[in-house]
Amino acid sequence: MLKHSPRRTRLASLVLASFLLALTACPGDENPDDDGGTNITDGGSTDGGSTDAGDKQPDGGAYDPGPKVCGDGKVQKGEACDDRNTVSGDGCTFDCGEVEAGFECPVSGQACVVATACGNGLVEAAEVCDDRNKESNDGCKADCSGVENGWTCPFQGQPCRAAQCNDGILAGEEECEDGNATNGDGCSETCRLEQGYKCDTQGQPCTRTTCGDGKKEGTEQCDDGDHDMGDGCSPLCVLEPKCVNGTCEARCGDGVILPGDTSEECDDGNVRSNDGCSSTCKLEAGFACVRITQDPPSVVEIPVVYRDFCGVSSGCTAPAIQHPDFNDANGPETGIVGPKFGPLGADGKPIYAKGAGSPVTHGKTAFDQWYRDTPNVNVTEVSTLKLNKQGNGSYLFDDQTFFPLDASGWVGMGKESLLNDNNGIKRNFSFTSETRYWFEFKGTEVLTFLGDDDVWVFINGKLALDLGGVHGATSGTVSLADATTVTGLGLQKGKIYEVVVFQAERHTSQSSYKLTLNGFETQRTKCESTCGNGTVNAGEQCDNGNANGPGYGKCSLTCVWNARCGDGITQYAFGETCDDGNTNDRDSCPNSCQVDPG
């Protein structure tokens, strides 16, 4: 089993998906929302529908032929409007691509006008609420005549919210509603789903989900029905990054924004809309969203998969089958997998390299069972390694009596006997472990292990460290500052790679495991529905409360400024003759943005 010397093991510059995996026990716990209501990011009914499909404009007219030229007063295909200018804030956006919220553009080529209808985001006339759509069951009635039961709509143009948690009515940002304020029953006191639960019926008790049954339910981000790691869905039913040779696929909902990636405007760790970050990881109107570097938590959790075996002379009873590789021969043996820099198998598991067998192994068939679920041969258990933050900022897992399956596996099923360790304590030996995480390569990483049984480390899918065999404490180091190692592993700075650690505990003596990680960083998105509360919060340019709306010089419904004097753009359509980006009245452009012609 893996055992470390007092020398401090360093795994420098672990980033990004390491934190993603570290948080797998609590996914989706930031600003969650239910799936009810309507996605408001399209501006409600004012968007006029698609401008690219078919040969007719949204109002039924024909598109003007010729190339698209915004500002020429002609609506060409690809434009939603054209009011003879290229400025926003007057109903038609600067690029003619969208009719702005609160406006209508009824005549192609002419100025847009302020709309006066339910769904424009403004509470007008006899309206009680207006959440920028004409849909029911999202808090505001379809005709804007009233607020629906269990909801409150405090800000015009913004999504309505739950009036009260624990009232038995599922509404707004609530993920569940079981009618009580008790924690630990699947639905928290703040009406958020608790890890490992699903709550299908409002007002009724929640029930536990079963990760690995192939059905995605409750808090599960995925469920592919297996215990394999590195296949995109972890055995804890959390999305994993998909990386090939340092290049990762951006995955909406995994809570990670990759360096340099522009495909995601946000990622808040879920795929729910109406919480600021949509189901396609696009920013939604009405929320203040900021990217943050995650503050290091006090504890990091990394998924680990254990497979328990019934070793030789372990008192195996049916259906458990005695495995010849466990509790049998002793002796160090490199090359059981390999060669150095050799690849992992297509399924992400080590490839046996000893032909018919070796001094401490018994052939490919037996070895392939070590890290693959095999009925009657092994029992699989999914857990996490909890690493505590140290004073120097590193994270440490250190267990000098590492026996995670003493009460489970074949022993827990009554099919195998406990055996004495060196101190005469009854233990469950004969198991393997597999853990994976990702890091951004910077060229300074050092991995050091001290283990008393098999340990293999793969980086970028290639063997980096071989401590194979059944042996006493043996150390090994991988320095990613070494040019030969970097070349052999095919690493490039700034790219993201997976580290896989395979371990086996195969002899009755002692068992320890020590792992240290350094340099965690990750970027994610945090959104808050604050636009409209009258206070300029992070991510907002302005906020005038219910005075927000369309029009020159006003703060928009999304808490960014419409066209205004002082924005550095001369808005001739609004009477400006200059705009130097300030409202200083003592320079060449006065604070009215109009120069006296005299």
UniProtKB/TrEMBL annotation:
Residue ranges occupied by any PA14 domain in the UniProt entry: 387-533
Domain of life (superkingdom): Bacteria
Alphabetized InterPro entries for the sequence: Fibro_Slime (IPR011874), Myxo_disulph_rpt (IPR011936), PA14/GLEYA (IPR037524), PA14_dom (IPR011658), Prespore-cell_inducing_factor (IPR051154)
GO CC field: extracellular region
UniProt feature, compositional bias: Low complexity: 37-52
Region (Disordered): 29-68
Keyword annotations of the record: Disulfide bond, Glycoprotein, Repeat, Signal
Cleaved signal peptide residues: 1-27
Pfam families: DUF4215, PA14
Similarity comment text for this entry: Belongs to the prespore-cell-inducing factor family.
Name this polypeptide is given: DUF4215 domain-containing protein
